[in-house]
Design brief:
Layout: H1 12-28, E1 47-52, H2 58-69, E2 73-78, H3 90-100, E3 103-107, H4 111-120, E4 125-127, H5 135-149, E5 156-160, H6 165-177, E6 180-184, H7 193-201, E7 206-208, H8 212-215, E8 221-224, H9 237-244, H10 251-255, E9 262-265, H11 277-280, H12 287-306
Parallel strand pairs: 1-2, 1-3, 3-4, 5-6, 5-8, 6-7, 8-9
The structure holds phosphoric acid mono(formamide)ester and norvaline (NVA).
């Protein structure tokens, strides 16, 4: 059974193969209408459940489109509308769903929910974001970086802002794809020390630098994300904004990185908070390529999970 739960727990060679497959699939259908079917139909006869316990635009639509392009069918479900949201256990939900569908994609709060689903499902489970990680996003980001600038191995990636779930998956990717990673943000919002140690143990350089200008020196890629994630209490909003304001990605910050540095944001963004509109719409930005590449990267993940 191949679950896609996290980058640091998936074999590095398999991750590389998925990126290469995604790129090939993207090239193969270049220029066709979005709804056109791929030449091969590897998901023919397959049903995929897409379950959301949190809002989503990109994850929902890109998974739905990807499955359809490959000849499969989807059902998009809200956790709140299922018995899952009314006391049925995750284990029982997993067993029941496994009798109906061929794969489950889950966006949820606690990581434990995802792992319990995977443990009790007899079909593959994909992590569509938890409070702790967002691996599908970073697969799309690796694909995006490499399309623009070539292999990411040995490059310097700088995360400016909250050491959140998306940051965690970037750290996981650093160890697996072999790039250096610098975090710049306030100490209270550091990435998990265990993830830092694990990436370092894989031989990559991971630094924590409180001064954002110093952090981005020599950066090939600058990344940020929202200051308040979906699982963060709204009561923390003002404090987080005050703490994170010095880490806003501005044109001045981008100018301190390498001249050809890229800027990424997984979206949705709060414009002129974590990054200025000038950066988001500027020459370094590849944010909409990242969004598109969710589709292509996840098609490769789906095929890997199903072995097709
Ligand atoms: N980046 C991302 O996962 O976006 P959605 O929340 O819209 O799915
Ligand atoms: N860190 C954000 C990512 C959204 C795609 C969140 O969890 O809300």
């Amino acid at each position: 059974m191949r679950h896609f739960l996290d980058l640091h727990t998936t074999d590095a060679g398999e991750l590389r193969a998925m990126i290469d497959a995604a790129r090939a699939m993207k090239t193969a259908r270049a220029g066709r209408p979005r709804g056109a079917l791929d030449d091969d139909q590897p998901l023919s006869g397959r049903m995929v459940a897409l379950i959301f316990e949190k809002p989503s635009t990109r994850t929902r639509i890109s998974f739905d489109m990807g499955v359809r392009q490959m000849g499969g069918q989807t059902m998009v479900l809200s956790g709140a509308d299922m018995q899952l949201g009314h006391g049925e256990t995750i284990a029982d939900t997993a067993r029941v769903l496994s009798r109906y569908v061929d794969l489950i994609m889950l966006r949820t709060f606690e990581e434990a929910t995802l792992h319990e689903m995977a443990e009790h499902a007899s079909v593959p489970v994909i992590n569509g974001l938890t409070n702790r990680s967002h691996p599908c996003q970073i697969m799309a980001d690796i694909l995006t970086y490499e399309e623009h600038r070539g292999p990411i191995g040995g490059r310097k990636v700088v995360w400016s802002g909250d050491g959140n779930n998306v940051c965690a998956s970037f750290l996981h990717a650093a160890g697996q794809f072999g790039f250096d990673f610098t975090f710049t943000g306030p100490p209270t919002l550091d990435p998990e020390p265990g993830f830092v140690a694990e990436a370092r143990a894989k031989g990559v350089r991971v630094e924590i630098e409180r001064d954002p200008m110093r952090a981005v020196a020599g950066a090939d890629l600058v990344v940020t994300d929202t200051w308040v994630s979906m699982h963060d209490p709204q009561s923390a909003r003002e404090r987080r904004h005050n703490q994170l304001r010095p880490y806003q990605v501005t044109e001045a910050l981008m100018a301190a990185a390498k001249p050809d540095a890229l800027f990424m944001h997984c979206l949705p963004a709060h414009r002129d908070e974590e990054a200025t509109s000038a950066v988001m719409d500027g020459p370094h930005s590849v944010i909409f390529d990242e969004a598109e590449n969710r589709l292509h990267a996840q098609k490769a993940i789906l095929r890997w999970c199903l072995g097709v």
